[in-house]
Structure formats: C-alpha cells, structure tokens
Description:
Elements: H1 2-16, H2 18-37, H3 50-58, H4 60-77, H5 81-93, H6 96-120, H7 122-132, H8 154-162, H9 167-183, H10 202-209, H11 226-230, H12 255-260, H13 266-284
The structure holds zinc ion (2 copies).
Amino acid sequence: MLVSLAVAAAVASVFIGNEAVNGIVALFIISWPLERFFRRHPVPVRRLALRTDLAYAAAQPALQFITLVVAIVVGVLSFAWIPGLLLRPFVTSLPALAQVIGGFLLFDFLVYWTHRWSHTVPLFWRFHSVHHSTRHLDWVSGFRAHPLDGVFIAPIIVLFIAAGVDNKVTGGLAIIQFLVGLGAHLNVRFRLRPLWPVVMTPEFHHWHHELRHEAHNSNFSTFLPIWDIMFGTYRMPRDQRPQNYGIPGPMPNGIIQQLAFPMRGLRSDWRNWRQGRKQRRAAAV
Ligand SMILES: [Zn+2]
Ligand SMILES: [Zn+2]
C-alpha cells in the first residue's frame, strides 16, 4: 500500500506541483494512524465521495489563488482599510506581545461572526454549504470548501494589515486556523472533554456539521469556543454524540459541479433576500 501511495504521490506531483502533494501526504501520514486506531465512525477507506474530497485537496493551490484574487478585490472595496489606518498609531504603539494576544483574540472573535453570518445570510450560505455537504468527516473532508466561501473574511485581514499588525501575526493566525480546522474534521473517537471550553476539538466541530435540526446553528468558533459560550450558540451535550453529517438540501457530486452549484439562481435569491430585509425593516418601524 505504501509503495502504491508513493508512486501515486510521485505521479500527482508532476501534474499538480510538489507543495500541494507534500501537504496532502504529510496530512495523511499524521492523520491515518489516528483514524485507524482511534476511529469513531466505521467508514471504509474508500468511502463515499472520497475522490471529490481528494480533488479538493489536490486543487488547493488553484482554489487558494482564486480566493486570494477575489479577497483582494473584496478587501479593497470593503474600505475596511480606513478604520485600520485610523487604528494604526495605537496598534503600532502597543508592545509586541499585546499585539499578538490582542490581534489573536480580535481575529478569532471576528471570524466567529463571519462564520455565523455564513450560515444565516442566504448568499453566504450558498458558498459555505459546499463545505457542509460532506457526509463523512475525516482527514480529507476539511478541504472541501468553495474558494469564494472564505472571501468574506477579507475585510478583516485588510483591517489587520492596515492597522499595522505584523504580517507574520496575521499570516500565522490564518495558517493556525487552517490547520486546526483540518484537525477538527478527523474521524476520531476521543472526546477531549477538558479541552471543550478551551479550544476547538473534533467533537466540537462535528456538532457544527451535525445534520439533525436541533444541532444547526451551533459551535461557530473556529479556534476558541468562548465566543459560542458568550453568544449563546455553544452546544456540547455530555450524553449525546454527533451521528450524521451533511445538509438537508441538495448538493451535486463532483468538484466541478459543486463549484458551480452556488451560482445557480443567484440573482433571484439575492433579490428575494433584499426584499425580505426591506419588509422586516418596515415591520420593525
Ligand atoms: Zn459552518
Ligand atoms: Zn468543517
């Protein structure tokens, strides 16, 4: 098996570049023993839609490039750099440690809200639902995400850069969140109870992916669960465990079909949402 994997990795590296392949292989080597010896759901190695999720993993460089280009446009047009520039004298006067800790807490707090809006704003949910459509959570399923799903976070990054927060801090936070996010999808049986209120665990994020209606709209934090505890969306029942994952609505199979799916009927959906918002506002007056 290892020989065939090595051959597959060598062949794949010719087509999609060494960096992406090395990342996927490294992740597999770290995750495989955990999922093999501490497996929670009995899922076959060649499980449903594995090829789709592997395609997402292999396409990461291209997908992240699309995200970057659109994020730059969204970031600049959001004008989040204006409050960033206003905050700059204050931020740069802070000690380095305060910048790191303050930056981390603020970043994590804002990511909580952007993730929460990804579920509550229909336009954002169209893109985010691709990530939630996986029926199995494991080492590779975390890669399944639409490249436009992450762009709503761009104004936050722009704000941080304009405010003078060290690029290494901003970049480091994004990488940490990406890696912790991948780990949170692992199919492992340990519950890590002492860590529940401290940091995102697989159990915490698996509840976020749970299909059952009552579990929807919970555990939005992507690193510190404190935001869910503070804003009333924390869900970690001691006597139950998440069982089934996915979304109630339809989602086609295959990466190309899934990437195109959020664009269907986009214009009419957007019009309906704006109309609904107007009516809600009129009713509130
Ligand atoms: Zn989500
Ligand atoms: Zn997830």
